Hints:
The chain is an all-alpha fold. Helices cover 69% and strands 2% of the residues.
Amino acid sequence: MKQVHFDSKLALAWLALGGLGYFQVFPNIILCSIALLATLACMIKRIDDYVPYAEITALIATLQWVFMPMLGYIFETPIQKYRMYVGEEFYFSFALPAVCCMNAMLLSIRRLKDPVGRAFRLEYSPKVLRHVAMLLITAGLASALVSGRVPGSLGFVFHLLSQLTYVAVLILVYHEVPRSRWMLVLAVAPLILGAGRTAMFHSLLLWCCFFGIFWLRSRPRSHAFKMQFIAIGIAGVLAVQFFKGAYREELMSQRGSGRLEAMVSVVSLDLFTREESWMNGVVRFNQGWIISAILDNVPSREPYANGATLQDAIVAAIFPRFIMSTKKAVGGGANFRRYTGLPIGKGTSMGISPLGEAWANFGKEGGIALMFCWGAILSLFIIYLNRLAASRPMFHFLIPLILYQGIKAETEFLVIFNQLTKGLMLSLIVYWGMKHYGNISFLKSEGTLRNPHPPSDATRTHQSTEHSKVAKAVDSRHETSDQKRRA
Length: 487
């Protein structure tokens, strides 16, 4: 059965939109709004067909690389560091076609739809699902304690294992398991506390996005309900962005105070009515100031990398450090300092994004071509993951563990490739371990779990009797209809 569909008309429409951006034919506010609304509509339409990983990636990229930079040109930020460093036409003549080329591949190469609520439901009793979730939560919490105490690549492996806690939440939310609220609280509490402790909210927002989408797909929903749910989600993301900037400023100004006091102080302010809060929200969403700084710095002061960062990313993703000790480390701000020309603190880690990295390596036309290829590669990789999960239903819940860095708009290819490769290997190991040692058996032919509580003989007899009654009733209806025809 054909599982992949290429929508050539949709691809051509995105490429045409990118062409208009490249030649700057229409006002950018119109082109950016069309790109954002088209991506959002595509995600809403397909959310019933499958978990829209590619659509989420396209939406985040369009929002942070195109739409928010457009607002950055309209409403100039008072903080000079976060300004747009090049002119509007120059920026969008690269960013718009690059994003549209990536979206053309991400949104046109897609899977055929699965039935809502039946695509990968685990046919297990609530008791067994709670048991599976508890195993994952325990493993995740234990790994979180170890990850900060183990150096190097091994620490990253334990960091990935700590995300199993949130995989458990996906299972509980998708199946709406009764009597599991305390488990949900136990699993989500470290995510919220970690965001409050570090003042970093990316992981919180991404996993909450996954939680919401899996819950939304747990049963058929009306179009109006989906629209309301997504609108509430967008409002929640905006609220977090407003809160984040004020919260960080409060922590810096009150170094002796606790984080709880800082949260209370921030929430008590007129957070959502001040113009400063709205400007900070635009800045927090806007990755365009980093990309524009790269456009301004490369190649006038820093030469093109000509694929060097991509080579580093591929080598780091394939070879472990004990084989190649000189490979580039994940994180830090080396690429940011080099290609933007801007200073950054030693303890600060800030990426230049795939779009910024595309320009830093190959310039305008080469960068657009790279984003086109990256959209195709990521879309095919997502399809590959779904094919792996077609006969392994538990693997569906591990896919966010593989992709949660890849869908972000501010990370670099080094982080993305490292996450995709190591996340895939670790997810396959976890799946294998649960299959062989977690007392979970899989039906490879049908793609659903065996029922751990098969019906008893009495139940089978009752079901057989009921089926016989139904068959007799159907036969009697056919006989009655035949008699009427003869008459």
